[in-house]
Amino acid sequence: MSHRAANNPFNLLGRSLEELREFVQSLGEPTYRADQIYHALYAERRFDVASMTNLPAALRERLARESAITLPQVRRRYESSDGAVRYVLALDAPENAGAPAGKPATVEAVFMPEENRQTICISTQAGCAVDCHFCLTATLGLIRNLTAGDIVGQVLMALHDQRATLKPQTNVVLMGQGEPLLNYDAVTAALRILLDPNGMAITPKHTTLSTSGIIPGIEKLALEKVRPKLAISLNASSNAQRDAIMPINRKYPIEKLLEACARYPLRPWEHLTFEYVLLGGFNDAPEDAARLAKLVAKLRVKVNLIPWNPGDLPYEKPNPARIEEFRRILNEKSIPAFVRYSRGQDVMAACGQLAVLESARNTSGPSLSQISGV
Ligand code: SF4
């Protein structure tokens, strides 16, 4: 590794302990200095090497010259009346672990406080190539894969911004922009830091990766020593229906996806989560619920029903009576099902909406006045 061109400092963020050890060795320092940097950065959340007082002054000065900690920059911050905070973040650290140079990107992260915990929803790609028809991020296409530093940085940034009110438990969900399993190496590198008891110490039980159903990625993830819980974004009860809203289904159809789910090695405490966005008049009929119940009957699952949150897309909000009926049919077949309303609806809740607006703002400059809190 060559680290130290003066105009290209080594970004410490997103580096594994092994990478940091290699870096400090290249500076002629003992490897335990890497352990100290790793702990200060990820466990103590120190983002300025000058504050890493566990390091000798001379090393701090050298690190200040030759390294950087490039956190995502908060471009906008929207506070919802329900307490959720949505961040539009600029990620422009091309030196960060292999990101393509000259490609600044905007993504979003959401912080959702609850009574005894907080949940942070993060992005894994800027834009997305998967093209789910109910998702505004899809309209961006793929801008770029995020680096491990970009991904870990979103959690660090949110925890730092909310440090005054943090609860003891943090949940992380990889459900923001992007398909995590199509940015596999960076996502798993970030997860190893997030889930490391000596790193950010978030537990696998409190971390969920959501996929549109990329079967090779699911199969690879199954072999990882360190892995989060897995959620599948299903959203349909038949191939014809899923083909119509998720073109990825033509490549990985429901029956193959469910076979991969059946092979997925669940830990004793674990279940799969199936997410099902209820699109009014499209996939929310009682027959859909009955078909869905049949599809997942043999799996250890729970189903999260997510009523469609109207945005700029041609779907209807499902009727509350139909939502309840859908849930009841699943429960009757002994499938745990829960209705999850998106947090922060008044500051745009659907996947990717803020970034889409941000991208439009940067090009044609439309008004954001429709978003309360701006
Ligand atoms: S729902 Fe997720 S996978 Fe589908 S286009 Fe949107 S960001 Fe990509």
Number of strands: 14
**Which small compounds were modeled alongside the protein?**
iron/sulfur cluster
* CATH homologous superfamily assignment of the largest domain: Aldolase class I
Which bin fits the share of residues in helices?
25-40%
Summarize the structure in words.
With 374 residues, the protein is of the alpha/beta class. It folds into two domains: 10-68, Orthogonal Bundle (DNA polymerase, domain 1), CATH 1.10.150; 73-363, Aldolase class I (TIM Barrel), CATH 3.20.20.70. The chain is built from twelve helices and 14 strands. The protein has helices at 17-26, 32-43, 57-66, 148-161, 184-194, 215-221, 239-245, 248-251, 254-263, 286-296, 320-332, 353-363; strands spanning 10-11, 67-68, 73-79, 85-91, 105-113, 117-121, 125-127, 142-145, 169-174, 207-211, 229-233, 272-278, 301-307, 337-339. It has a ten-stranded mixed sheet with strand order 3-4-5-6-9-10-11-12-13-14, sandwiched between helices. The chain has a two-stranded parallel sheet with strand order 1-2. Strands 7-8 form a two-stranded antiparallel ribbon. It is elongated and about 70 Å long. Mean pLDDT is 88; it is low at 94-98 and 362-374.
Would you summarize the structure shown here?
The chain has 374 residues and is of the alpha/beta class. Helix content is 32%, strand content 19%.
